[in-house]
Amino acid sequence: MTGLVVGLGSSRGVRAAAVWSALRAAVPDLTAITAFGTIDRRRDEPGLLAVIREHGAPLHCYPAAELDAVDVPHPSEPVRGHVGTRSVAEAAALLTARDLGGGSLIVPKLRGEHVTVAVAALHPLSISSACTACGACLRTCPEYALRPAPLRPAVIAARCTSCGECVEVCPTDAITLWD
Ligand code: SF4
Ligand code: SF4
Q1: How far is the CA of 160 from the centre of ligand 1 (A)?
Q2: CA distance linking residue 131 with residue 172, whole number of Å
């Protein structure tokens, strides 16, 4: 399985071993991780970077104001006092999923040793900016799982059976189906 994104928050000086430990507690199958997300100010944090580089999935970083605008299950005012957003891990997981086509939080914030982890599952498929809004996938989907939206079709995740017919019909290869 692929298609999980992990949001990470941490204190300065977090140990890579602590990050690995929290990550394994949240995601039993680490090969399922498609991307990581965190706050801009931790983009150079050695303990986080060591884990992310060894894993190999890309890291998405977001400014505090963008993270703070995300509706999350466990916002924290003390965290905002420290880093300028009420959420890092949960908000970063959701923003990273958004940037990969959309997703839902499946593991809310877990605390490790100076690290927090949250996990979002990507929707079963994502549609990239290569979409020209031709409408072919909308007409093809047997489950009516795609609906018109301003820039590209929106996915109704609960309807999608991952049949792949929309992927086959798309003339610009804009659709990725996660397996
Ligand atoms: S994978 Fe199949 S069910 Fe899902 S959106 Fe595409 S055509 Fe519809
Ligand atoms: S078939 Fe491809 S290009 Fe056409 S609307 Fe669907 S995703 Fe966009």
Answers
A1: 5
A2: 6
User: How do the domains of the chain map onto residue ranges?
Assistant: 4-122, 128-174
pLDDT digits (tens, 9 = 90+) for 92-126: 999 999 888 788 899 999 999 999 999 998 888 88
Ramachandran angles phi, psi of 25, nearest 5° = -70, -30
Decide: 125 in ligand 1 pocket, CB within 6 A. yes
Using a 6 Å cutoff on CB, does residue 127 contact ligand 2? yes
Residue closest by Cα to atom 6 of ligand 1: 166
Q: Is 175 in the pocket of ligand 1 (CB under 6 A)?
A: no
Asked whether the whole model's pTM tops 0.90, one would answer no
Residues in Cβ contact with 116 at an 8 Å cutoff, skipping those fewer than 6 apart: 8, 9, 10, 22, 88, 89, 109, 110
CATH of the domain spanning 4-122, picked from 3.40.630.30, 3.30.420.180, 3.10.129.10, 2.60.120.10: 3.30.420.180
Architecture of domain 128-174: 2-Layer Sandwich (3.30)
Quick one: which of 24, 17, 160, 7 has its CA closest to 93? 7
pLDDT in tens, 56-98: 999 999 999 999 999 999 999 999 999 999 999 999 999 999 8
